[in-house]
């Protein structure tokens, strides 16, 4: 979902063309009980191409809502890729229509803080968070490090002797989750060597010895670790995960590193939603989260349940943004 600078420039041009002052669209109706009801199908935006985390989560939620008959109107998933999410966010903001909602995750912070989109989480209405996923730091099976602390001990002496790779661009998710843990371990994060490989070769680069560490998702790292090709030095979760293999993976916290990073995935609406519109969506996504159907989806994809209502989600986002701003400032990635 993260793309190279030249494509960023092009995508941002598109985003700026379709952005501008939002105009509230007062559509739908309020029934006799004071409840808002949509007057047409819901456009559920996945801000990336088909097949990624945003798209998969949105489609699984839409399927759950349909199968459980939670809503009277359908939720149709529409892909709007570009700018790491910026094109979709500009579209939602400009339309400002309660029939348009979208799914997002930490890139909503990163892209805005890096100045690559005029819109951040505070420009939309947080509706609910549904799931949590986590990151992992893995090395080749024969690497000299067996723990995160051993890795960071070497990096405290000379950060440049270790090269880390991830899919996302510098200042984005794979990079930042590693930086947050290195910072908590006392590493000079301004000297960390990070390589962005958006062509799918990150794992191969570690396996062939071109780089030392991969910062990625738990599921991607676990696949290689199960095969005996890699070892996972630590995960970003606050506590060990469930599962026969996943429960063997140590957290950073249990290794004395006071850091965690959650890859949340939540639902947002346009900026000017009414209380009635927000209540409508909160109810739907709470029912979806509590359903057996979505519990099976979470288990199938290795996602943790992390439901937050609108108020709790907004407070969580504010706290995470403050933490990320401080680190991005130190790295020089933040743009006002």
UniProtKB/TrEMBL annotation:
Signal peptide per UniProt: 1-27
Keyword Signal: yes
Keyword terms: Signal
Domain of life: Bacteria
Family matches, as Pfam families: TctC
UniProt family annotation: Belongs to the UPF0065 (bug) family.
PANTHER family: TRICARBOXYLATE-BINDING PROTEIN, UPF0065 PROTEIN YFLP
Protein name according to UniProt: Tricarboxylic transport TctC
Organism listed in the record: Shouchella clausii (strain KSM-K16) (Alkalihalobacillus clausii)
